[in-house]
Amino acid sequence: MTYFQPSETKCKCGCGQDILPALRDALDDLREMVGFPLEVASGFRCPKRNALVGGARDSMHLRGLACDLVWPVSVSDRHALAREALASFSGVGFYETFIHVDLRHLVKKRLSLWVN
Ligand SMILES: [Zn+2]
Q1: Strands 91-94, 66-70: parallel, antiparallel or unpaired by DSSP?
Q2: Which domains occur in the chain, in start order?
Q3: Which of 38, 66, 105, 114 is deepest in the core (most CB within 10 A)?
Q4: CB 100 within 8 A of CB 68
Q5: Quick one: which of 109, 87, 113, 110 has its CA closest to 100?
Q6: How far is the CA of 31 from the centre of ligand 1 (A)?
Q7: Ligand 1 center to residue 61 CA distance, Å?
Q8: Rounded to the nearest whole angstrom, what is the distance from the C-alpha of residue 55 to the centroid of ligand 1?
Q9: Residue 18 C-alpha to ligand 1 middle, in angstroms?
């Protein structure tokens, strides 16, 4: 099932660029696994947008392989989201207001887990 629409995942600058199908599929699977709505904080980012939000220079967002998802309000939902993210993504970053997930293994990058 498709949950994440391009309107949610496209670059917020209006350039029209969007995440890769592999990531959309992975996000849809994640949404299916957790069973509750997930809000996108940041999907695709072009270099201009990435610089504006202070993203890393080699950010997976630039390749359409990363998405930041707003933490749910419920603690048990947060646990479920963290658990499923770790099970399905090769890059997972924990931030105060969102969790970053990416598919860095698709570009031959090693698994990465970090807490900001
Ligand atoms: Zn853009």
Answers
A1: unpaired
A2: 6-115 (3.30.1380.10)
A3: 66
A4: yes
A5: 113
A6: 25
A7: 11
A8: 13
A9: 9
Distances in Å between the Cα of 64 and the Cα atoms of 1, 22, 59, 78 are 20, 9, 9, 24
3-state secondary structure of 104: helix
What pLDDT does residue 1 have?
Answer: 87
Binned at pLDDT 50, 70 and 90, residue 6 comes out as very high
Query: Cα angle vertex 51, ends 46, 53, to 5°?
Result: 95
For residue 104, give both structure tokens. 């860095």
Instruction: Grade residue 24 by pLDDT with cuts at 50, 70 and 90.
Output: very high
**Residue bearing tokens 């419920």:** 74
Q: How many residues does the chain have?
A: 116
**What is the CA(116)–ligand 1 centre distance, in A?**
24
* Residue 92 amino acid letter: V
Which residues are paired to 40 by β-bridges? Answer: 69
Side-chain-facing half-sphere of 8: CA atoms under 13 Å: 18
